[in-house]
Amino acid sequence: MLLTYIAELADEPLALEPDDHPGEWETNTWWLSAEVEDRRSLTVDEVVAAFERTASLLRARVGGLEHTGPATFYVWHDEQAGQLRCSTGSVGPQELPFGGAYVPVDDLAPIVAAFLADEEPGVIRLTDDESDDESDDESDDEPEEGAGEEPVRPPFPVWVRAVGTADHA
Q: How far apart are CA 5 and CA 95, in angstroms?
């Protein structure tokens, strides 16, 4: 079913409104899940090829619109939700609407591999270091420097494909 959902993305409503990025996000963002059994039956190459086909179809579709600026189709693995997510926006790959740090990448295979290998979608296991940080400290000492601050998360990879007319004119 995942491959079917990916293929259908090219035909879904598409908003390219440079003055309304929240509207683009709402219209153009998709959450893709798959049961563990389905994940085991798919190969990384099959899923990557499906996204490549969708990007190509979106590029042709955007080329037929009046939109003349940049547009980017992008895919990432949301580990917390156990999903692949994808969207299209009227921005370049360095301007995607993420609140955290990300790294645009050309190779989708590692992102798909992590998604397919996730045996417990949506479950994040704490490392030993993280579980130590979460444990109760019974001492009455001064709090450690930086205590209570959110941990800095490393940038996550986001596969990007230019689909806008200005990107491939």
A: 26
